[in-house]
């Protein structure tokens, strides 16, 4: 029997629900007016973006050394929001579709951006 297919949007919605109870976390879809920078999927902590869904992929903000290690391990790539080769050193695009990996990296990004690490 095959497993039901989970879309990136469903996976991201589950991630949002898992982290939104953390103090200071807001989602772009929350009612408070917010300046849009990347789109309507941003997760923020204390007003700073730490995760977002872009073109069906999870993008997270992590320390440059951590991004370097993840890229070297073949887990994903640096984020290129303008599609012009100007990569963002602290932003990582995950290639895995595992909900567990998504949540783990989002929690790591939340801790980094909120200053807990």
SSE map:
Elements (H helix, E strand, L loop, with lengths): L7 H12 L5 E3 L15 E3 L2 E7 L2 E5 L2 H9 L3 E4 L8 E7 L4 H16 L3
Antiparallel strand pairs: 1-2, 2-3, 3-4, 4-6, 5-6
Helix pairs in contact: 1-3
Written overview of the protein:
This protein is an alpha+beta fold and about 120 residues long. Helices cover about 30% and strands about 25% of the residues. It contains three helices and six strands. Strands 1-2-3-4-6-5 form a six-stranded antiparallel β-sheet.
Q: How would you concisely characterize the structure shown here?
A:
By secondary structure, this protein is of the alpha+beta class. 32% of the residues lie in helices and 25% in strands. It is built from 3 helices and 6 strands; from the N terminus they run H-E-E-E-E-H-E-E-H.
**Terminal-residue CA separation:** 42 Å
Q: Name the poorly predicted regions.
A: none
Compressed to H and E, one letter per element, the order equals HEEEEHEEH
Radius of gyration: 14 Å
- What class, by secondary structure content? alpha+beta
Beta-strand content bin: 15-25%
- Going across the major beta sheet, what is the strand order? 1-2-3-4-6-5
Number of helices: 3
Largest sheet: 6 strands, antiparallel
Question: Would you tell me the overall average pLDDT?
Answer: 87
Outline: globular
Number of beta-strand segments: 6
Measured as a percent range, the helix fraction is 25-40%
């Amino acid at each position: 029997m095959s497993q039901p297919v989970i879309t990136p949007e469903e996976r991201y919605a589950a991630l949002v629900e898992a982290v939104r109870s953390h103090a200071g976390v807001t989602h772009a879809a929350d009612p408070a007016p917010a300046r849009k920078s990347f789109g309507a999927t941003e997760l923020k902590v204390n007003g700073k973006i730490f995760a977002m869904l872009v073109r069906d992929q999870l993008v997270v903000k992590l320390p440059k050394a951590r991004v370097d290690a993840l890229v070297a391990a073949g887990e994903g790539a640096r984020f290129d929001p303008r599609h012009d080769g100007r990569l963002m050193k602290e932003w990582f695009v995950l290639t895995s579709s595992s909900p567990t990996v998504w949540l783990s990296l989002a929690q790591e990004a939340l801790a980094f951006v909120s200053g807990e690490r």
